[in-house]
Amino acid sequence: MTVGLILLAHGARNPAWAAPFETVLARVQAKRTDTPVSLAYLELLEPSLVQAARDLVGRGATTLVVLPLFLGGAGHVRRDVEPQIQQLQTQLALPIRILPALGEQAFFQDALTAWCLSVLEQSPEAP
């Protein structure tokens, strides 16, 4: 079994918006050279989730994991991403697991809280 990872970001009109996500992709690829990894976008940029999934299957993935790089999962993830994943599972005939959105992960909440607190500690004038 070869697991392929899709990092799924929202997308934006300005391609420069994608730079932080491309950095994360490059770092993951550098540390996991044995794992097919792709960055996909829900809208406005390419590749799409469908394109990325097909690419990873073409690179040997037999199961896919989708990590939504969204702060919340109640909107786009449930309304737009989950139906696409159900269709892809049928079309590609392979298991696809979607993880909770990044913002719903405890480690991310902890990191964001720590960052907020450090900003307050560094600032001479708290808001």
UniProtKB/TrEMBL annotation:
Pfam families: CbiX. This is CbiX/SirB N-terminal domain-containing protein. InterPro entries: CbiX-like (IPR002762), Sirohydro_Cobaltochel/CbiX (IPR050963). PANTHER family: FERROCHELATASE CHE1, SIROHYDROCHLORIN FERROCHELATASE, CHLOROPLASTIC. CDD domains: CbiX_SirB_N. GO terms for molecular function: lyase activity; metal ion binding. The lineage of its organism: Bacteria, Pseudomonadati, Pseudomonadota, Betaproteobacteria, Burkholderiales. Keywords: Lyase, Metal-binding.
